[in-house]
Write a structure and sequence with these properties.
The complex is a heterodimer of chains A (741) and B (149). Chain A is α+β, with helices and mostly antiparallel strands and 741 residues long. Chain A is 25% helix and 23% strand. In chain A, the strands form six sheets. Chain A has a seven-stranded mixed sheet with strand order 3-5-1-12-9-10-11. In chain A, strands 7-15-14-13-8 form a five-stranded mixed sheet, sandwiched between helices. Chain A starts with 5 loop residues before the first helix and ends in a 6-residue tail after the last helix. Chain B is of the alpha+beta class. Chain B has a five-stranded mixed sheet with strand order 2-1-5-3-4, sandwiched between helices. The longest helix of chain B is centred in the last third of the chain and has 14 residues. Chain B is globular. At the A-B interface, helix 1 and helix 15 of A face helix 2, helix 3, helix 4, helix 5 and helix 6 of B.
Chain lengths: 741, 149
Amino acid sequence: MSRSDGWAKAAGDARYVADLALPGMLHVALTRSAVPHGRIAGIDTTGARAVEGVTGVFTAADVTSASYGRSVRDVPILARDKVRFTGERVAAVVATSRRAAEEAAALVDVEYEELPAVLSADEALAPSAPAVHDQPWAYPGAAAQPDGPRNVQSVAAHGSRTAAEEALGRAEYIVDRTYSTVSGHQGYLEPQACVASVDRGQIRVWTTNKSPYRLRSQLAECLGLDPASIVVEPVPLGGDFGGKGSPMDVPLCAELARLTGHPVKLVLRYAEDLTATNPRHPARIRVRAGCDRHGKLLGIAVRAVLNGGAYAGFKPLPNVNLHGVLDCLTAYHVPAAFTESVIAYTNTVPRGHMRSPGAPQAAFAVESALDELAQASGLDPAGLRRRNLAGSTGGGSHGTGPGSDGSGPGSDGTGPGSDGSGPDGTGQDGTGQAGDRGEQTLEAALREAAASRPAVPRGWLHGSGIAVYARAAPALPVTSVRLAPAADGRIRAEVPIPETGTGSHTVVANRLAAELGISADRVEVAQVSTAGLPFDPGVGASRVTLGMSEAISRAARAWRSRAGDEPVVAEGGADGPGEADGPVISYCAQVAQVAVDPGTGQVRVLEILSAVDVGQVVNPLAHQMQIDGGAVMGYGFGCLEDLAEDGGQVWAASMSEFKIPSMKDVPALRTVLVTGGRGLTEANVKPVGELSNVPAAAAIANAVAAATGCRIRDLPVTAEKVYWSLPGPGGLEASGQEQHR
Amino acid sequence: VKVSFTLNGAPVAADVAAGALLVDVVRGLGMTGTKEACGVGVCGACTVLVGDLPVSSCLYVAACAEGAEVWTVEGLAREEPALIRAFVEQEGMQCGICTPGQVVAAAALARENPAATDEEIRDFQAGNLCRCTGYQTIAAAVRAYLASR
């Protein structure tokens, strides 16, 4: 069955938030801070109010003083007394047209007394640094401690520091390297948007949010309302990739609707989205890895320092950290592993989640360091990994997965699009043993990559690089589904999750059809408002297929045994199948083939091959698109994307500067599915949405190092960086470093 | 200023601000299939046909469409269902925001170079960004559409 929403989307009939209009609706535009850190000395709204069509100009004095957040509630609706980043909301204009609102917003005159700003995590963590927040521990849900170091949003660690130090002390070979990554935007093409109305105390919102039930709670907490007085309406999302999980501008719009007595609409300009929403955390990650003389890992210590920006409220975990950093050694058995992640408050745009939060940054560091360790110990990169991949327990060091920090089904990143599968013993490797999935996945990648080699431009250097990522499946989310007869004789499945683009609604139809033994086109799937179903944590953490599969199995059983035409509601997740056989781990091994022009440093990624550990795939094409889209996103992270922050400002304020890959840019993509994995639920599914985007950047950097002998330790891998790291003209051939692996 | 043009085959007239952009005018006329994303003519989501040419309607001053034949995705879907069918059958989409622009670009390619090679398809559609799919199914949809004609 093709996508249930396919025709409407391709024909332009699908209605997104920006396409909605309510009777009497007014338009909102924002005045944003022009300085990274300052006291608001005065706001003159005279000029703005004089613009024809302006209904009102509102500042912090007009709206609730309560702050909001996904976990820590430290984000003000409008800046109060102080601004903490360039781009922060200071005033909101409401007008009869968007044009009038924008014209007026530019005329709001804000006087700032600039304060010393901290613009990087390192600056912020210095003992004498200016404080971004005077009392960060005082916010509801704060992870910061009153006696903790200055400007710390969050500190989290796994493993024993002492044991790792001891192991590194007796290692035969050791590398100690620091890697860095820059800030990047999720790159969803639909800007953040909100329509809100208030009618007799009932708030209704249509917004670009993937967690409607959580949004309802977050709004209720912020506005001091009963959640029952808030309804989050169903609407498709134009991409998410982790960036659409926060309340963003919804609390403000709800307040503006209340203040004006009209429905209001705010659609961010893309420049605002790039500069002032919740991009990925820039990271500086030190990796110390040691092995014995046979290449067996003894210990690894990873310390990541991340720039969390001005507010922590865009991260959902109670510790407001990123599990992808702490879990970065899941693929390997490391006898003494220690990972720690420090996130700093700075006077820069607040950071949020992006597809497998923290993992792409950490995998770039760890997988680069393993190549460097291989070189130091005289092993080849595949050999070192083969020797150390996690053994028959199915998971390696810190293979604890999202939510291991007590968050439950916490984190998020991107969509579902899981797949699943029954162990069928027909894995490509022929063994079908669940315990060696990492090794099987790596071997499949190496074998397929060797089977054909892309053409290399004449005179260019060729290199190939590998990288491996492993991720534990999330805890099964508590979710719900309602089945009822549809008017046209089909079965209507009402779900609590928005369709973010991953095909999740189609996967629901596929799963329900399989359970009931009917054709998928006999199933109609619809998102309903938050008034319609008990609960759902929202889209994210690669969990939608997992959670919905279980709820659907239960709903299908209830449907078959129901009396009459009564609808059935089933919940799933709370008491779902345990992990008696250990956590379910998914592996992804990638091989990147690059060509490097020795004259200019230009890198062309010729191919990314992804070997993915799967169970039973529910919807093969949707599954494949998760892999392809992820690999391309990983390529963008590796080679292109940079928000170009400087002086506390995001300078890549348009898509002509923040470059995401085009059809012309993408490398050749190949995939090998390593079947036979042990999955979760009766459908035996495994997550796929946050695998192939993770190791790609490291695979590319490793390939560039193999081609040139030059190691790029800061992303993205640009021609300029490669050029300046190459020996002088002719130096490569003269020094004999050219390698063809 | 007053501007009149043909929108999806039907004459329309509008009184718009001098700098009004075509994307806002067609969306204001109910054709919300045309999406605005980047707003600077880079992503291609707002692509419409002016005559046979694909233009970024977020950069195109509406008054310049005076007397022109403008086609949005809605009109193309009505006139050329095989185009939509190709995207549906090949699943050349995920979130759907870039899809109308991809569809309009594909219609322009079919007019300009109906026998486009894979390389030419990639060149032509490079102005239409997609963050979801990795582009494989979009290229397949364009290929299938060209082959169906």
